[in-house]
Amino acid sequence: MGKLLDKINSPEDLRNLEVEQLKSLAGEIREFIVETVSKTGGHLASNLGVVEVTLALHYVFDFKKDKLLWDVGHQCYAHKIITDRKNEFNRIRQPEGPSGFPDPAESPYDQFAVGHAGTSIANAIGLALGQKQQGLDDKIVALVGDASIVNGASFEALNNLGLVKRQLLIVLNDNSMAIDTTQGAMAKYFSRVRLSQTYEDLRKTTSNILEHMPVFGKGVEEAIERIKKSIRMVLPASQMFESMNVPYFGPVDGYEIGSLIRLFEGLSHLNHPAILHIYTTKGKGFEPAEKNRPKFHSTGPFKINGEAIGKKTKRKSFTSAFGESLVELAKKDERIVALTSAMCDGTGLGEFREEFAQRFYDVGIAESAAVDIAAGLAKSGLRPVVAIYSTFLQRSFDQIAQEVALQKLPVVFCIDRAGVVGADGATHHGVMDVGFLRMMPNMILLAPADDVEMKSALAFALAQDAPVAIRYPKDFVPDKRYVRAASKRPFKLGRGVYVIRKKASKAVIVSYGSVLKEAMEAAGILSKEKIAVDVFNARFAEPVDGRLLSVLQKGKPIVTVEDHSVACGFGSAVLEKISSNLNGPVENRIIVLGSPRKFIMHSTRSYQLEQVGVSAEKIAQKVREILP
Amino acid sequence: MGKLLDKINSPEDLRNLEVEQLKSLAGEIREFIVETVSKTGGHLASNLGVVEVTLALHYVFDFKKDKLLWDVGHQCYAHKIITDRKNEFNRIRQPEGPSGFPDPAESPYDQFAVGHAGTSIANAIGLALGQKQQGLDDKIVALVGDASIVNGASFEALNNLGLVKRQLLIVLNDNSMAIDTTQGAMAKYFSRVRLSQTYEDLRKTTSNILEHMPVFGKGVEEAIERIKKSIRMVLPASQMFESMNVPYFGPVDGYEIGSLIRLFEGLSHLNHPAILHIYTTKGKGFEPAEKNRPKFHSTGPFKINGEAIGKKTKRKSFTSAFGESLVELAKKDERIVALTSAMCDGTGLGEFREEFAQRFYDVGIAESAAVDIAAGLAKSGLRPVVAIYSTFLQRSFDQIAQEVALQKLPVVFCIDRAGVVGADGATHHGVMDVGFLRMMPNMILLAPADDVEMKSALAFALAQDAPVAIRYPKDFVPDKRYVRAASKRPFKLGRGVYVIRKKASKAVIVSYGSVLKEAMEAAGILSKEKIAVDVFNARFAEPVDGRLLSVLQKGKPIVTVEDHSVACGFGSAVLEKISSNLNGPVENRIIVLGSPRKFIMHSTRSYQLEQVGVSAEKIAQKVREILP
Q: Which of A609, B232, B360, B491 lies in the 20 to 30 Å Cα band around A493?
């Protein structure tokens, strides 16, 4: 840690520093972030981009009282370092360490636990309206990236910004990047504006705003008019925001810390909402990250020269298994097209994009549009595959129900990051997809247990004349020892497969998806204790295999295992199935294992599985408990 | 039916008519719609507004091959009349009659079964990309209202319109109305443009576009440039669309049928997407509707002079019971604020808005923003009540999970139209809310059975330091004979109440919400057959009352009843609860009644309840079946 940073124990300490010192401090914080993330992994590039902005905001506002809202929130590291969490920062995203996203449970400086895009403006509007009604006047600032502001949720909020008749500052942090290059017309518009600006232009704009800035609370309104007028004359005002009637200032340089302070100071006195458009650079100050911004968006540990640490793993992830299988299938079927929403690499579509550029669509952070565009593609006769993380697919619930399921269109949803996700934590777990999808008529739900099954699951899905959802976790596929003959049997609608079947079995473990690994390990543990259990790989959550009924009728209890919430999950579907099929009372016993109704904090995925009770040992323990 | 309309059996027949005849035909269709809807009820005002536009579109395009996409779709009556459904039109929205919304099952002229806002542009993009990839060139037209185009889903689609490199026409049908006056900055922007235009301006714009219109396929691109240039000079081009790089034409008059035909004809030859902005008037040509557009947005039967038919019902709806209770509570608690998304009257908030104008927010068709603004309001210390129909709340799934449940904010969701909704049909049923909400940690789910319970449910909800969802149907509250002492007991977290309890009871009917009425009627039927059953009003779906376990332990079977899908519903929650609590095997028997996994078509609500098996007789029958 640097000399200056050593002395910063709260944002108040910033205010004792000169601008030059703040610049040095920014350098120290940047170094601290690079050093830490090189060990822990985490979101790097975006955090390096906003160090100066963060310092300037904390210098001007008092966020113990004032409210700072982060959009997505993965760029909050400098904020965490200067607010209460400097000493824990080296354990960021680790179990018991600080979250990689804002979290009110950690600090009063964090307002909302966030992780999805486009929420901060609407949250800020609500805060502002509430403050106004209660006669309060804490300042409110929302920091939104250019990739977030094109999300439908942001637009709906911007469209309603007129409700607010008091201060509310939106800082548009424009680094022309989402995880990947930002998509869509707005992005092109921003980059056109950006390209048309020289460094000199930015300085002129800044001084123009500053020159007309009102003196503390006096003549604010007239000053705004003057500022707006002079900027309009000098600069291409943002048509977009002007058409939405949002006072727009900028663009300005996001690294001139002295100017930023004066700008924030001035704008803090406005008595209505405004947008300040600032330019930053992802990865700022760390060359490897500036050069490869997608790679350093979210990274594992690395050497300080930017090289990845450790030998490249040869283990295959579910993500890459999906990507490979899709490319293979797409070679044989021209109807296959793929869509994603700003997560091409994250969902394993990189190779598909290269191979089939004309059949690949990235719509930016716009999950709702992705699904409705896929519906149109399916209607036209193609076979769209929509690859979106489980947690983000929640944004498309209504579109899947209405435009896909109701129309019975053959859209295949490939749901990555299904289940607990490890270090990203509560906002990123995908533990509700089975529930929200299985309520929809026509929808078929399945989950492969390994890469062999991934391929046949995908082939099966693409052959259906109905929507299909395939879920799989952020994890490696299990070792070959788990790839049994069972995996190789082709998928058949609503049929699971026995992976272990013993004559004297006392119970049946029924697993859904990747947790077959844990189920089989549990069976192994029990086997050593001379407790024979069957293991059934369900494959389908909808329709559920009706043969499970006969298991119960033979008097064997069932333990269902899934990496999903118990509420509405696969086990719940089994309960429903059994309940509706009973022709008479049977002594039945179904225990459902999965995530409880509570939010699971960040840590490692294996720790989280243990936590929610679907580790091998926990499964085995449950079997022991229920046996007579 | 008029003389001309008599002869129109398909859109081809239109093309034999002169423009003057088309005008007369529009008049006949308008009369036919008014006459029919005066008997059947239905969406009236919006349908009267677009008769000419519909005729002009069908005159120019061949929608057996070309694709016409309706946004929301409640304005498709003229379209239905001239495409295959003239003779069935008098049974619109009736059982077995045509749906009030587009439905591909009815006619090849309908592409998507729709009902929610903002979907048509993205669907059109998908269709266009799919057509292009397959070397097809059917024309594609999306008709979108000004209230729909401000929805986040529309914006995400507009932002991605650049993906399309071929013809795609968006007709922006601007009547400055959603169900109520459209909200937000865009709406203000549109109305500013609208007010600045005289009738003469509209004519000038039209002739300007027409003058530069390309000759069939020749020199299209240059012509576009000429048109755009000349319009830019004459008219305030739409900043909004320009900033999104969407070629924008208009505004023009939506009733000059001859000009509309020439405009559509010309624009159909463009080889890239474009927007044509047309002005129409809700209720056009029917004075009572022009004067009171909200009233005639969706209406019951009425006299041709506009008066409602029949004596005003004195029966209270769940909706008005909610509205009244909220006003009463808000008088005592200043922290209570209410939000809705373009359905103030539909959700019973009219009185609240009048009484507490400063505590009421309508955000337009922007369900996601509504919830995030509510989250901010709650965070600021207020008690927001969000009133949105169940089917539309699906748009807010992610916001409720992330910004409300994860933060454990005290937002109260008042979910109207929960359950089957009658005449609006498949796109409007609210049969998934229990499922998607009960997966979220911190969320409390309850449902009142009548107006007495509505009041105490709401009071209970507003007293919680956690999010609460209250669901109720589009129905009247039951007669007083159902209001028993049980209803008057205050709500207690996770506790249901016995409404009927008999010593010799053979089974327990456990109902959730308004279907307590059906449950009690079923008990009445069974009682006459000397079959004694208990009736338990569960009140809570989360947490489920644990005492149900002891019922099973006494050997009594349970029949759960709900107006929700069986998948993931209340009964499913009971199954999960019992499964997790069993300390040893019991002979248990739980039968879950609710909607099956299929889409329920439009008809009456009582018919639909019968259809899904939760009518009194069907419940009674199920009890008979399972008794030993």
A: A609
- Mean pLDDT (whole number) for B437-443: 98
Nearest chain A residue to B238 by CA distance is A243
* Cis previous bond, A251, omega within 30: yes
Chain B interface includes A462 (CB < 8 A): no
**How many Cβ atoms from other residues are within 10 Å of residue A149's Cβ?**
29
CB contact under 8 A, A399 and B153: yes
Give buried/exposed letters for B603-612 (b at 16+ CB in 10 A, else e). bebeebbbbb
- Chain B: residue whose CA lies nearest to A622: B580
B418 at A interface, C-beta within 8 A:
no
**Residues B440, B397: Cα–Cα separation, whole Å:** 10
B122 vs A151: CB contact, 8 Å cut-off? no
Question: CB B379 to CB A130 under 8 A?
Answer: yes
Report, as an integer, the average pLDDT of A523-551: 94
Q: Residue A251: in which H helix or E strand, if any? A: strand A248-253
pLDDT tens sequence across A463-520: 999 999 999 999 999 987 666 667 889 999 999 999 999 989 999 999 999 999 999 9
| SS3 assignment for B28-56 | HHHHHHHHHHHHHCEECHHHHHCHHHHHH
A264-274: average pLDDT: 90
Residue B541 has what pLDDT?
98
Write down the residue that tokens 């946004």 correspond to.
Answer: B71
What are the angstrom distances between the C-alpha of A266 and each of A141, A228, A243, A337? Answer: 13, 14, 24, 50
Helix B367-379 crosses helix A152-159 at what angle (to 10 degrees)?
Answer: 70
Q: What is the maximum alpha-carbon separation in chain A?
A: 87
pLDDT given at position B234: 44
Is residue B139 within 8 A of residue B127, CB to CB? The reply is no
Residue B611 pLDDT grade (very low, low, confident, very high; cuts 50, 70, 90): very high
Q: Among A50-54, A241-245, B161-165, B276-280, where is mean pLDDT lowest?
A: A241-245
Point out the residue among B136, B377, B542 whose CB comes nearest to the CB of A126.
B377
Tokens linked to A448: 């492969």
Cα–Cα nearest to A317, from A353, A347, A340, A362: A347
Q: Which of B244, B242, B192, B247 is nearest to B224 (CA)?
A: B247
B581 touching A (Cβ < 8 Å) = no
Contact B48, B283 (CB under 8 A): yes
Structure tokens at B50: 């677009």
**Paired residues of B339 in beta bridges:** B361, B386
Whole-number Å distance between alpha carbons of A436 and A327 = 28
In this structure, of B192-201, B567-576, B596-605, the range with the lowest mean pLDDT score is: B192-201
Contact: A372, B122; criterion CB under 8 Å: yes
Tell me whether residue A481 is exposed, middle or buried, using C-beta atoms within 10 angstroms of its C-beta: 0 to 12, 13 to 18, 19 or more: exposed
Listed in order, strand segments (DSSP E) in A495-565 are 497-500, 507-511, 533-537, 540-542, 558-565
**Predicted-assembly ipTM surpassing the 0.90 threshold:** yes
Contact residues, chain A, for B238 at CB < 8 Å: 243
pTM attached to this predicted model: 0.95
A502 is catalytic: no
Interhelix angle B257-267/B199-211, nearest 10 degrees:
40
Q: Residue B188: its chain A contacts at CB < 8 A?
A: 162, 245
Of A383, A395, A455, A474, catalytic: A395
Q: Would you place residue B180 in the very low, low, confident or very high pLDDT band (cuts 50, 70, 90)?
A: low
Residues A112-151: tens digit of each pLDDT: 999 999 999 999 999 999 999 999 999 999 999 999 998 9
Average confidence score pLDDT of chain B: 91
Element (H, E) at A168: strand A168-174
pLDDT at B224 over 70: no
